[in-house]
Specification:
The complex is a heterodimer. By secondary structure, chain A is an alpha/beta fold. Helix content of chain A is about 40%, strand content about 15%. In chain A, helix 1 runs parallel beside helix 4. Chain A is globular. Chain B has helices at about 15-25, 40-55; strands at about 5-10, 30-35, 55-65, 65-70. By secondary structure, chain B is an alpha+beta fold. The chains are: A alpha/beta, B alpha+beta. The interface of A and B includes residues 32, 95, 98 and 106 of A.
């Protein structure tokens, strides 16, 4: 056994806000000399698309801060999701928060192992060409190989 | 006198740490990396970073909104 610390993450969510935790934690762990792997499954695959179009929705997200109080029915009006996404990206830029594109680039540079769930790829009719070239494709057993040796395992 | 300087002002978590890690990579043991940051979380973060990577926090100070660190690569 090597004394290299390991972390394994399952990333299951595909909205802009939920794309952050796996990438922030993975890149930071890599900076702390962890050997890191991320298993992207279900909606998490949206984050590893080459052309990603991540959105944030105020709908069903009562904790999201809004500039003005907004009834749920107003939040359901077409265009509200796009507006919330633009506002959030703008705010992140102003506060010096990295973009998902930047974090993904840093993650790849840090040689974080990226595994995509082949079952979900089939389920959503994704093609490997649509997804990042750095991915390897596997199933749940591969995750256990990673997580079984990990010091930290997170389900996000 | 620092051997290398990292301006991490205006950057938020985890960017200052990631950039510091990158900067340290090309440095020799004993060399000093100085860092300026405005993220108030960076004080604890750089402390933890040093504790976990075995580098030494040689200096940490604060001047208004700017935090200043010197990390000695081990």
């Amino acid at each position: 056994m090597s004394d290299q610390k390991k972390m394994a993450i399952i990333a299951t969510k595909g909205t802009l806000d939920w794309a952050y935790p796996p990438l922030i934690l993975a890149t930071t762990a890599a900076a702390l000399d962890y050997d890191v792997s991320i298993f992207w499954t279900f909606y998490g695959l949206q984050v590893v698309k080459k052309q990603r179009d991540l959105k944030i929705s105020p709908l069903g997200n009562p904790a999201m801060p809004m500039p003005v109080p907004m009834p749920v029915l107003v939040q359901a009006i077409p265009g509200m999701e796009a507006m919330a996404t633009v506002m959030m990206k703008d705010k992140m830029k102003k506060k010096g928060v990295a973009s998902i594109d930047d974090l993904m680039e840093l993650a790849i540079e840090a040689e974080i192992k990226m595994i995509a769930c082949q079952m979900t790829v089939d389920l959503f009719d994704f093609k490997h060409e649509e997804l990042l070239d750095e991915l390897e494709y596997a199933g749940a057993a591969k995750f256990f190989e990673e997580a079984g040796e990990a010091d930290i395992t997170l389900y996000i | 006198m620092a051997d290398k300087h990292l301006d991490a002002k205006g950057l938020n978590c985890p960017l200052p740490i990631l950039k510091a890690k990158k900067a340290l990579k090309d440095m020799q043991p004993g060399q000093i990396l100085s860092i300026e940051a405005t993220d108030p979380g960076s004080a604890k973060d750089f402390e933890s970073f040093c504790a976990q990577t075995g580098n030494k926090m040689a200096k940490a100070s604060e001047n208004g909104d700017v935090f200043y660190y010197e990390i000695e690569k081990q």
